[in-house]
UniProtKB/TrEMBL annotation:
Keywords: Signal. Transmembrane segments: none annotated. GO terms for cellular component: periplasmic space. This is SsuA/THI5-like domain-containing protein. Belongs to the bacterial solute-binding protein SsuA/TauA family. InterPro entries: SsuA/THI5 (IPR015168), TAT_signal (IPR006311). It comes from the Bacteria.
Amino acid sequence: MFRKFVQQNPDGYPLTEAGSTRREFLMRGACLAGAAALGGAYLPQAMAAGPLTLKATHGTGLCNCPFFLVKERNLAQGVSLDFVTTPSNADIAALFGAGVVDVSVVPYTNFMTLYDAGAPIKIIAGSGVQGCVIVAQPGITSAAQLRGKTIGTFQADTLEMLPYDYLKKAGMSFADVTVRYFGTSPELAQAFIAGNVDAMCHIEPYATQALKARPGSVQLSNGVDVYGANYSDCVLAVRSKLLHENRDAVKALIKAMMVAQRQEELDRASAVKDTVGKYFKTSYDATLDAAAKQPAMIDQRSNQNFILQRAQNLKELRYIKRLPGPDVFDWGPLNDVIKENSDLYGQLKLKSA
């Protein structure tokens, strides 16, 4: 079936706004991940032939900031990143699952849907923590007051997991609300600012932007009240083929992400200046305000169990059929980088050890 799909679609799966139903989302991810499992993954030239260019996708939240700094500041020795532009959040993960790109900073939830569909991919490090925020229109101050209301979010995203768990903690479920799915981060933020949804779960810096732009709006949860501090949002993941054939490139990328984390911790204003506008479609002031709310944390080995526990939500929502195990992670390259760069690792504020 997947081979026939690839033959009939030589230019790839059409990139459109995220579907409004779970069925459409799953069809997109399954077709792309399944096609890639047949072996169409793109892999660039070997490092021995010169600098290695890795095709990559990324999200739109501040959890991607270290990834952006790696590219903008050329932090990875012998490796450069070529970002592939995608029209919607769903396509970010789909292209990675299809093997169109080699590496991605992606919500761990999207990763698990791709893995469940058969994509040969591994989580090798973290990127950002926290920063998932539920905001509500003026007058809504509790989970109970969301009953019968509309919540905007993204499918199979960490931004869908937080309201799911937030409502569950209050003895409620998605059956008590109307969940409306959006295609892009600016689209969701503008829908909330315009009053077209009663609440939304969004990422930083868009959550801060919305709170500033909508007088009287309320932050119901920033995730810490539900999950605790430093919960995972996005992870750094690679195609298994890259991991096996260019381990040095993977290690160079992880080290560069750690350098970016350190630079961000030392000077958030500079990090925002180098990324706002091009990557974050929000104002400089809103982005700087939000930057500390979703910090970089590349070593997220301590979040392994948290990530695996959220898989139960994905199964309940019928995004995946089977629960993943520890084999979705490969911390080997990260362990090597930590051992080989103890001084750098020791300077990082946020880390597992």
